[in-house]
Design brief:
This protein is α+β, with helices and mostly antiparallel strands and 297 residues long. It folds into 3 domains: 46 residues, Arc Repressor Mutant, subunit A; 168 residues, 2-Layer Sandwich (Alpha-Beta Plaits); 44 residues, Arc Repressor Mutant, subunit A (Orthogonal Bundle). It is 37% helix and 30% strand. The chain has an 8-stranded antiparallel barrel, surrounded by 4 helices. A two-stranded antiparallel ribbon has the order 1-6. It is globular and about 50 Å long. Keywords: DNA-binding, Transcription, Transcription regulation.
């Protein structure tokens, strides 16, 4: 990829992260590239899946107070298991990974009882020979809202808007209006209400691929000090996309995005150099098959 293309992508993604629903004209002014160039490039990035702009709902909105990561070891081909896991409603994320497990899945559930029920369903699959469960704690950085959810009641049209923005957070006001049979101004009011209450956030996700590979690595940290304070410091690193406290085999989980093995190594070295971090175990995400951030009950 040429230097100018790389520079455009970096500026465009940065501008989107600042204002995910910015108009193409506004993005052109922010990036300094011509409007037509920005429009074409943005369409390419979205259609390829390299960049996604989506609506992510607050976990409390669905009553899903518990988030767990489940590592799955498989006997035989992985794809049949992937197809099975994708059908599990509580599964919001399914990906193949490197390491001792072939698959990782994230679940959003109401409580421990529901978690145990889903895990029993997973264990019952004959191709699955072992699972390991890690429960998430407080989100320090990531797509899931870290802010308090304001009291809000949702009707059918609100839920339709959440679903539509969960697929594409840059749908125009007119496109959204057509979905819910309201005027664009009424839709804007409803969406702003959802955003102001923290019921939903519009987030930007880089996934790499044809237009510039992004290496996605999960890091499991063992700490010797307060997790919140250490993760807040680690989260200042631009390479860290997701940081959360955890209960189980480790004290915290990070997702690190990098464009090269060298930059990934440098990011891990910065984390390892912190005296509060006593152990770092990594696992590379290979291919994602399900990613849903707008699930509500």
């Amino acid at each position: 990829m040429s230097d100018s293309r790389t520079e455009l992508d970096e500026r465009l993604v940065a501008a989107l992260k600042t204002e995910p629903r910015a108009t193409v004209l506004s993005l052109a002014e922010t990036t300094g590239f011509p409007r037509a160039v920005v429009a074409t490039r943005l369409k390419e990035l979205q259609e390829s899946g390299d960049v996604r702009v989506v609506g992510a709902t607050h976990p409390m909105l669905s009553g899903a107070r518990l988030i767990a990561a489940v590592s799955i070891a498989v006997t035989g081909p992985v794809m049949p298991v992937i197809e099975f896991l994708k059908t599990i409603e509580e599964a919001v994320y399914v990906s193949t990974v490197s390491g001792p497990f072939e698959i990782v899945m994230e679940l959003r559930v109401a409580d421990q009882d529901e978690l145990l029920q889903v895990l029993e369903e997973v264990r019952a699959a004959p191709e699955i020979n072992r699972i390991e469960t890690l429960t998430y704690g407080r989100v320090i950085k990531g797509y899931l809202s870290q802010n308090e959810l304001a009291e809000i009641s949702l009707d059918v049209k609100d839920r339709q808007l959440i679903g539509a923005l969960g697929e594409d957070g840059r749908k125009s006001w007119q496109e959204l209006a057509d979905i819910v049979s309201l005027s664009p101004s009424a839709v804007r009011t409803r969406v702003n209400r959802l955003l102001e209450s923290n019921a939903m956030r519009i987030v930007v996700m880089e996934r790499g691929g044809r237009y510039g590979r992004v290496i996605s690595t999960t890091a499991f940290l063992t700490l010797n000090a307060d997790g919140d304070a250490i993760l807040a410091k680690i989260s200042e690193d631009d390479a860290v996309e997701f940081a959360i406290t955890a209960f189980g085999k480790c004290d915290a989980v990070l997702v690190i995005r990098s464009r090269s093995q060298a930059s990934l190594f440098e990011a891990l070295e910065r984390i390892r150099s912190m005296p509060e971090v006593t152990k770092v175990e990594t696992r590379t995400q290979l291919q994602q098959f399900k990613e849903v951030f707008s699930r509500i009950l």
